[in-house]
User: Fold these one by one.
Assistant:
Number 1:
Amino acid sequence: MKTQTIINIVFAVAFVGYVVLQRNPTFGTITCDTITCKVWNVVDADGKQRISAGNLDDKQSVGVQWLDKDGTHRIGAGTTADGNAYLGLSGKDRSVRIQAGTKPDGSASVRLWDNDGSVRIRAATSADGNASVRWLDKDEKVRIDAGITADGKVLLPTKDLEPPKP
């Protein structure tokens, strides 16, 4: 009987809180030390979602996304269950333009896309200390590949480059 009374009180308080929130959803400034939640959303003055943070579908990964005034996803950042971290920036048309990431092994990469959706630049560092930058043509064929090994050996394959003509 005691348990049922407690449950009834909890439901009554929750119902009153719901009614109060429906009548006056704006409280102004709230200051607190910690907020714990599964999803966090920020809306603008018109009630449109502008930022969302929370657990992703697999419940092991988390992410944050920023949306522009039209609701278009423009920035995303997160961590995955397997230890990867990423940041992506999209154009107005939702196409990815810049993506950066790290892996648990210490490697990292950055990729840049052109307006047509082709990767044009890739830069990376590997777990073994090597680093490279690749420039690609519009068909994503590597045209210049510059790198350096962990021990300092420079790698500059330029076999398809022609010397300037006089």
Note: The chain has a mean pLDDT of 84.
Number 2:
Amino acid sequence: MPRKISILALTILGLHIVEVFIFGKSIAGSLFGNLLQISACALAVAMCIGASRRSGGFARSFWMLVGASLAIWGIADLGWMYYEVVLHRVPPELSMFRFLFDTQEAFFAMAILLDQDENSKDLDFGFVLDAVQMVLVFFFVYAGLYYVPSLALDAHAAAIREYTVMIAEIAVLLIAAALREM
């Protein structure tokens, strides 16, 4: 089974490369490119769900959070595809779909904060509260450091600010993961 999935993943990657050379930045290229990315995302989510079902305790929760993060990415990509293929434009700087691309880090942060000694199959109410708090923190970081300041910026400056906030979030997650392992 893993060999078939590897072949499927490599096929999606190969088709994506071919699609870029054949269709370029055309509407058809956008459609096929986004469909391939969504397919890869769906495959990754399915693999995370499968890993979660085979696991217990910490690993089960970890794979569900990673799968949720990838599912959010797929939903954001669907929205992006709608804008590019149907509306013939990229999503506006303050679009909800741009926000969804940035929210996946919250799920990775929750995965980092999981209790590795947890073996219970019951839902831990403390973890649920921590997860809600993490989502709120990421929402307010996004709103306070990107969304509100971007209202007064031009499109280029808003895009730079979005990427800066996203890179800072990822850097903080990597540092948190490294500290967690110490």
Note: The first helix runs from residue 2 to 23.
Number 3:
Amino acid sequence: MRKIPTLFVRDFERDNGRYVTREVNPGCEWVLDGEGIATRKIDGTCVLIRDDGTVAARREVKPGKTPPPGFEQVEADETTGKAVGWEPADQSSFAKLLAGIDTSSLAPGTYELIGPKVNGNPEGYAEHALVPHGSIPVEVPDRSYDSIAEWAAAHPTVEGIVFWRKQGDPDAGMVKIKRRDFRTDRRSLDRC
């Protein structure tokens, strides 16, 4: 659950980092070289099923705040100072939603919790569910800035794309790009 780098460099001079430029983030060139697989970025909240079957939920702790009991920090965001990690799911704000999902047959790994009471339900699910990360491949005609921006504009209900250098192995490398990272105004795209 380490922070996944964004494919393109953010434009902090022009718009305080809200949008990306055409410049590829260092270390992410493999995506434009055609390596790896493109998968749909699901809009929910991250959940971990451990090898022993216990479930943890992603948690951010703001600077100066006390972490919840059992919190396991994975990393700290240098920009915001937030600690990011896992807390036991049964004490998280998603405990009731997760209690209604049978996780006993799910493989260890990370999942996205989606459904009616998660992030306004952008995925449109009638019930709460766990979707394995990297499980929905997408086709992007080519991996140029323009092609990815056009794909994002053509898929307004999709949060974005996560590129996996080796499918199912987050340690091999992952890169993301969100639909909202691009300017939607065609004239703005042409000026990038």
Note: Residues 49 and 106 are 8 Å apart (CA to CA).
